[in-house]
């Protein structure tokens, strides 16, 4: 069994449509793939409708969160699996995040324009094509101007990494865990130790989140060193949390391949058994 529990489609900042994503997952030899677009369930229906035979789809999302235990607060990502997409409170929060991301991207366009960089909000919105807007869509506008060569280059500090970055809207992480559980979903902390992405939270927060309903930790991820993976794994065992691995595939916006890291079948089963929202779908 090859199980990849974290991927993105054009419903957020991936480059494969949900239908292309499930086809690519089958071609990569995966048995289970989770679609976890940022702050949206918009890709679920298309992915389920296009599911190839032999592939199982886990419907999920990756929620933009923040921990306010330090100043300034630290942003973090929470994967949410198999929650009820009709849960009104969670759906309203996701809509608020997406709306806030649009205003934020517009403000980032204004910052670029103020420096004489002639990108437009209409163009960036076009790259997002109706999905959740993120910095990778702004990156494509910079690539079109030949200001950078790749999406990764656009994340350098003189571009979207710092100079033109504006914080995005988020949910307090304790509230997010509570909302996901209330919607029947299973919350898993995405790449919790990835110091390459910025400041990381202390283990004491993970202890508190586990007590508040967090179900698991993502250990095997390209942004974790071998030592960080081991640390996350040991912490999960200590706290009775499940452990996942994933590619965090973003199509051609990143270099990582589908199935680059995977989740053990027994850990996947723990997610399925804990879920009360929707079930996995088999093609
Ligand atoms: P945002 O959510 O709008 O703040 O943008 C963050 C997203 O940009 C992440 O979800 C990644 O998909 C992507 N990203 C972050 N850093 C890089 C990088 N160095 N190269 C390519 N994509 C990146
Ligand atoms: Fe992303
Ligand atoms: Zn993430
Ligand atoms: Fe992700």
Overall number of strands: 9
- Backbone structural class: alpha/beta
What is the mean predicted local confidence, pLDDT?
Answer: 98
Q: How would you name the CATH homologous superfamily?
A: Metal-dependent hydrolases
Assembly form of the protein: single chain
Distance, first to last CA? 15 Å
**Main sheet properties:** 9 strands, mixed
* CATH topology (fold) name: TIM Barrel
Looking at the overall shape, the CATH architecture is: Alpha-Beta Barrel
Bound molecules: adenosine monophosphate, fe (iii) ion, zinc ion
Order of helices and strands: EHEHEEHHHHEHEHEHEHE
Which descriptor suits the 3D outline?
Answer: globular
CATH class: Alpha Beta
Q: Give the radius of gyration.
A: 18 Å
Helix percent reads 25-40%
Number of domains: 1
Give the helix tally: 10
Percent of residues in beta strands? 15-25%
Low-confidence stretches: none
Structure description:
There is one protein chain. The protein starts with a strand and ends with a strand. Strands 1, 2, 3, 4, 5, 6, 7, 8 and 9 form a nine-stranded mixed β-sheet that branches. The protein is α/β, with parallel strands linked by helices and 283 residues long. The radius of gyration is 18 Å and the shape is globular. Helix content is 39%, strand content 16%. It has a single domain (3-95, 170-282), classed as Metal-dependent hydrolases (TIM Barrel, Alpha-Beta Barrel), CATH 3.20.20.
Protein topology:
Elements: E1 3-4, H1 18-27, E2 32-38, H2 44-49, E3 56-67, E4 74-81, H3 88-114, H4 121-128, H5 135-144, H6 151-154, E5 171-172, H7 173-182, E6 186-189, H8 203-212, E7 216-220, H9 226-239, E8 242-245, H10 265-274, E9 281-282
Parallel strand pairs: 1-2, 2-3, 3-5, 6-7, 7-8
Antiparallel strand pairs: 3-4, 3-9, 4-6
Helix pairs in contact: 4-5
The structure holds adenosine monophosphate, fe (iii) ion (2 copies) and zinc ion.
